[in-house]
Write a structure and sequence with these properties.
Elements lengths: L1 E3 L5 E7 L8 H19 L4 E6 L2 H9 L1 H13 L2 E7 L23 H17 L6 E6 L10 H25 L2 E6 L10 H11 L4 E6 H6 L4 H11 L3 E6 L1 E5 L5 H8 L10 E5 L2 E5 L2 H5 L10 E7 L9 E3 L1 H12 L8 E4 L16 H21 L3 E2 L2
Parallel strand pairs: 2-3, 2-14, 3-4, 4-5, 5-6, 6-7, 7-8, 8-14
Antiparallel strand pairs: 1-2, 1-15, 9-12, 9-13, 10-11, 10-12
């Protein structure tokens, strides 16, 4: 979906396909048929943007076989789909029964992360629509904190500088400008937007910036305005933003609130949980840890890294951090010029929701994704952007 900003520039809105597990190119092609095109049809649009997730095997198949890449591009066009952004955070196995800490490997100190991301950039350059010259890729924020030390920091910085050089060369070759965005996430080396400033300024290249995920922003109790102002002062570009909402519990000391939260403590994904205290942010790596005894102070609200559907906040006594998303979006695209032109709805946890909230089959999932995109579209038009055909 494309929108015209009042300044005349085009803002792209997509939904991320990491909600549909696929490890191979055949699996990606099936996604387009079974999920992406049905969402487009529900929205009544001739064109739908998707934030494509390509696992390592799918990416390698595309980067080593020009015919396969042309075939994917043709299939996208045939189904009324377009790609300007990729989700390069998960490497493989994102649809496994247990993902948890595995999603953070390989990290940026491992040469395979550089090679995978460079391959994604070459693929994206070949998938961009004819009238689009800029693409974006989100990636993990260096590493999970416990696997990272000074000895691993230098190869990670070197890898990002090397990536920037390869992206320069790619633009010279193709005329397509691809940028990569570190995506701050609770528990990682780069947990907050402020944490991103030092490593990104050390890299010192405008092709490497930040992805503002509004669920992660909210989970860490960051103020969107303050965060974006800090990035602007530091000269760190917002390459893309993922529109997502976290799980919010206003009164976690109450038994009924804890019981409601327990329904979201599931075995597939990591749900880092945070609370703001007078002494600073306190947290646990997972929701079940927070619920176990006194692991986390409960005098104030808790927020958990659980991407809940944008249009359907959990029932009381829980809610979502949609207001944080709305505030961030206002700052990102509501001003005289957009801070980023790539927006991506990213709710990958549909099948991890409590059983009574999960979609039953493809049709209900498509309905839910379409409803999320409709909400995002309405937020954008309320900010003065005009939806394009």
């Amino acid at each position: 979906m494309r929108f015209r900003h009042p300044d005349g520039s085009t803002v792209h809105l997509a939904y991320c396909t990491n909600v549909h597990p696929a490890e191979t190119l055949d699996g990606v092609l099936a996604q387009l048929r079974d999920h992406c095109e049905p969402v487009r049809r529900r929205l009544g649009r001739d064109r739908l943007g998707i934030g494509l997730w390509l696992a390592k095997d799918a990416a390698r198949a595309l980067v080593t076989d020009p015919a396969a890449l042309r075939g994917l591009r043709c299939e996208l066009e045939r189904r009324g789909l377009e790609v300007v952004t990729l989700n390069g955070f998960p490497y493989e196995g994102f649809g496994a029964e247990e993902v948890k800490y595995r999603v953070y490997t390989p990290d940026w100190a491992d040469p395979e992360r550089l090679e995978h991301t460079a391959a994604l950039a070459r693929v994206l350059a070949g998938l961009l629509p004819e009238d689009v010259t800029e693409g974006s890729i989100s990636t993990l924020p260096l590493a999970w904190r416990t696997a990272y030390d000074d000895e691993r920091a230098e190869p990670a910085r070197t890898a990002l500088r090397t990536l920037a050089e390869r992206l320069d060369a790619l633009e010279e070759l193709t005329g397509r400008s691809i940028r990569v965005a570190l995506e701050p996430e609770p528990g990682c080396v780069v947990e907050t937007t402020r944490d991103a400033i030092a490593p990104l300024t050390a890299v010192g290249h405008d092709r490497i910036g930040i992805c503002v995920d509004t669920c992660h922003l909210a989970t860490s109790f960051e103020n969107p305005g303050t965060a974006l102002d800090d990035l602007a002062r530091a000269g760190v570009p917002v390459v893309k933003s993922q529109l997502s909402a976290a799980l919010h519990a206003e009164q976690p000391h109450l038994p009924e609130v804890r019981a409601a939260l327990a329904a979201f403590a599931e075995p597939r994904f990591l749900h880092q949980t945070r609370t703001a205290t007078a002494a600073g942010l306190r947290g646990t790596d997972d929701l079940d840890e927070a619920l176990a005894g006194d692991a986390l102070p409960d005098a104030g609200p808790w927020r958990s890294h659980f991407h809940v559907p944008l249009h359907a906040a959990p029932a009381a006594p829980l809610t979502s951090t949609l207001p944080v998303l709305t505030s961030a979006l206002t700052r990102l695209v509501g001003g005289p010029h957009p801070l980023t032109r790539h927006l991506e709805v990213e709710t990958y946890t549909w099948q991890a929701l409590p059983p009574e909230l999960r979609p039953r089959g493809r049709a209900q999932l498509a309905d839910g994704i379409a409803a999320e995109l409709t909400l995002a579209r309405d937020l954008l038009t309320d900010l003065g952007l005009k939806e394009l055909p």
